[in-house]
Design brief:
Layout: H1 4-14, H2 23-35, H3 38-46, H4 59-91, H5 94-119
Length: about 120
């Protein structure tokens, strides 16, 4: 028998996101985006070789380093998602949203005034 947590997880995987996509489609799109990112390849080609052994098998070391990076990246992404969820709940409060909007409006007005002053 399934637990409620498993049912909620299954429902989340088959739900429809605001753009009409399923979470699985969003995940596939993110994988394509990550795979097409040249920064990861540049990082791998510039940073990784200094940690590889000059003698002996290289493949096990590469696999271990890749696993370590995968764990660190996963933990980072989970932390970002949890922080965004917590911040989102806080930022949805009316009084907080009004303060943020007022502060951003003041910043935009200040930038506009600075641009107008520089143009003269």
């Amino acid at each position: 028998m399934r637990s409620t947590g498993e049912d909620a997880f299954g429902a989340a995987l088959t739900s429809v996101l605001p753009g009409g996509k399923t979470p699985a489609a969003a995940f596939r799109a993110s994988l394509i985006s990550i795979a097409a990112n040249p920064k990861a390849a540049v990082f791998g080609l510039t940073i990784l070789p200094q940690f590889l052994p000059s003698h002996g098998p290289v493949l096990p070391t590469v696999i271990i380093l890749a696993a370590i990076q995968l764990v660190i990246d996963t933990l980072w992404c989970v932390g970002v998602v949890l922080a965004a969820d917590r911040a989102g709940a806080w930022l949805r409060r009316t009084e907080i949203r009004q303060r943020v909007e007022r502060a951003l409006a003041a910043i935009l007005i200040g930038l506009g005034l600075g641009l107008a002053a520089d143009a003269r």
